[in-house]
Write a structure and sequence with these properties.
The protein is of the alpha/beta class. The chain has 2 domains: 4-121, Dinitrogenase iron-molybdenum cofactor biosynthesis domain (Nucleotidyltransferase, domain 5), CATH 3.30.420.130; 130-208. Helices cover 34% and strands 26% of the residues. It has 6 helices and 10 strands. Helix 3 (76-84) links the parallel strand 4 (68-71) and strand 5. The longest helix is centred in the middle third of the chain and has 28 residues, at 97-124.
Length: 213
Amino acid sequence: MSKIGILLNEKQEMASLADGSNVVIYAKKDGKWVPTEEIVECFKKYDARTQMRALMAELIQEMKCCKILVASVLTGIPYMILDNEGFMICEAEEFSEQLLDEIAFDYEKAKEDERLKQSEIQEDYPNQPVETDNAGVFRIDLKKLMKAHPEMTSKKALLPFLQKGVFYQLQVYCDHVMPWLTQHPVMERYKFNSMKLESGGYLVSIEKKCCTE
């Protein structure tokens, strides 16, 4: 069962980060939600807005395997930091065991949905380039490929296709430009160029040196 962190103020009421004084982490034992841990020190150290990132970094470290945080209000930079770290962030005005049950159910369902989504990606993403709407132009995303098929490498995915040479242009989306593109004998028949993408990674375009080949 998931652990859930509750952000409280000095009166031990549900609080925002601005007036929070501690986080109490709950876990379900014998059918009841019980407090198992309390995080206090990081709130004592960081009380200025300019130290918000430092506070969040220490809070995340202190929460360890607990990936759910409930507060009365949680927005802005703290929200983005927690979201980037994979936290489930919930807002509520009052604490109750029913609230914790509902949050835990939603969290486990979200994890299961993500697992099924990844399973579908593994089953559906092809392990070789696919032709686009433009005849002779093929495309492959190596990042998605390797996530779906961890056993694959760029060479395994591209070399058989390059050796056949039945394409006009091959578009490869990748994290980095593979060094073997300038070294492998098969590339003697091809030219390529790379473009850094604003979203991250590169687009490598591979074409035959002579269209009559």
